[in-house]
Each structure stands twice: as C-alpha cells, then as structure tokens.
Amino acid sequence: MTTTVEVVDDGPVRTLVLSGPRRLNSLAESTADALHDEVLAAERDPRVHALVLTGDGEHFSAGGDAEGVLEAADAIEDDAMIRFMRAYQRAGRVIWDSPLPVIAAVSGIAYGGAFNLAISCDLVVCSRSARFCQVFLRRGVVPDFGGAYVLPRIVGMQRAKALVLLADEIDALTAYDLGLVNFVTDTPDEARAKATQLAHRISADSRLAVGLTKKLMNVSSSGTMQTALEFEALAQSMVLGSTNARSAFEAFRER
C-alpha cells in the first residue's frame, strides 16, 4: 500500500502527514502528486495561513519508493522515468514556491528525496532521533526532489558535495550545526508540537506579507541583487496598501 497524504486542520494551520508507516512513509509517484495537490488546495483556502509537513509514526520518510522507481525504470514507455521524476520535482517545487510558510517536523529517518523534501520547507524542526542521509549514490542514482539546487544554498557548495558524494548519515545535532534544521527537540511529539507552535505564530501575521517575504527571500538566494531589489519594491508597494499594514503603522505612529 503506497503512502498517502493525510490532512489535519488546527485553525489556520494545516498539517500534511505522509502516512504509510509500514513502508517507512516512502514516497511513491502518487504520494508526490497528492502532496503537490494538497499544497495547492491549502493555498486556495483563505482559512489556511501555514502548513506543517510530517510523517506518520516514528519516521519522516525513507525517501523514494523502491518499487515505483523500478517500475518506472522498466516501463515500456520512453518517457516513464521522466514523468516519474517530474512528479517528485513538482512536489518539491510547490513547497519551495508556495506563498504559505511550510514547516517540516522530522523524526527518525529522512533519507534521499525525503531529506530534500524537508529542506525545501521554510523551517525544519527535528527530534534527536532524526537521521538524515543523501543516500542517492549508494543506490547508484543522482539526487532528486531538487536537492542539488536547495542543498548548496543552505550549507554551501563544499559541504553539500561532501553530503552527497560521501552519502554519510548525519544525526540531528550535526544537521543543526550545518544549518539544515532550525530547532532540535527531545522527542518526535515535541518536534511536531514545536512545528505547530511556530506555524501558529507565523499565522498571526499578514498572509500576504508572509507570502511575499518568503518569495523575496527565495528570489534573493538565486538571482542578482538588482532583481531582488526590484521585487522588494514591488512587494512593499503591495503590502503597504493592505489594511493590516496601514493599521500597524497607524498604531505605531500613535505610540
């Protein structure tokens, strides 16, 4: 049975749960498609202001589903593997590009594509049980879920190459030291609770301003300074016309 994506709402925070604990929440093509669709559905729902992404049970995810990978590789259609990869890529990109903040709560293993899916989120909380590995070369394949794009932007090129080429497993504290995670908790339940708390905290801010801030940060990480400044001016002009911003500045002026 393939891993599904379960949805749990808590006010303005929606939690997306990778649910397939018997398969260590491995990511099939259908899982990636479902994740992509649920993020878009959350974006369309004005009640949702933030997302939490986590795994069911003790683990976040073992990464790509081995059976699905082999089926795509053995398929008669010439473009089967490309279509398979596009599903993975859409899932990673929709999280990276979403105007909603996405916070990962990671425990147990986060291998391969699951590692890259987690770091595509805006914040990562993990428990001490978390173990991360860019396992791809052990399997004779290359990084997916956008890892070759995201990983060097977080840890720098040399550290990223070490993680990918050596394919060593790292623990939660090492991941924290490298800047891959923002917070480390003692237990998986505490990791999920911390991620939810952070999501609620961000949800209190303007949905428009949060989304544009996320976009501005992403633009600045990969474009020129001029591009970032142009988007900054556009974004600021948009939010300053909002009711939330005007109310905040009027309250500040009165103080």
Write out key terms for the chains shown.
16% strand; 9 strands; 3-stranded mixed beta sheet; alpha/beta; 2 domains; 6-stranded mixed beta sheet; 2-enoyl-CoA Hydratase, Chain A, domain 1; 11 helices; single chain; 255 residues
Give an overview of the whole structure:
There is one protein chain. The chain has about 260 residues and is of the alpha/beta class. The protein has 11 helices and 9 strands. About 55% of the residues lie in helices and about 15% in strands. The chain has 2 domains: about 5-205, 2-enoyl-CoA Hydratase, Chain A, domain 1 (Alpha-Beta Complex), CATH 3.90.226.10; about 205-255.
Envelope shape: globular
Q: Got a strand count?
A: 9
- The second-level CATH architecture of the largest domain is Alpha-Beta Complex
Class derived from helix and strand content: alpha/beta
CATH superfamily grouping of the largest domain: 2-enoyl-CoA Hydratase, Chain A, domain 1
What is the terminal separation in angstroms?
Answer: 59 Å
The total count of helices amounts to 11
Whole-number mean pLDDT: 89
The Cα radius of gyration reads 19 Å
Largest sheet: 6 strands, mixed
Helicity range of the residues?
40-55%
What would CATH call the class of the largest domain?
A: Alpha Beta
Q: Bin the strand percentage.
A: 15-25%
Spell out the helices and strands N to C: EEHEHHEEHEEHHEHEHHHH
CATH topology call of the largest domain: 2-enoyl-CoA Hydratase, Chain A, domain 1
Tell me the strand order in the biggest sheet. 1-2-3-4-6-9
| Overall tally of domains | 2
Which stretches are low in confidence, meaning pLDDT under 50 for 5 or more residues running? none
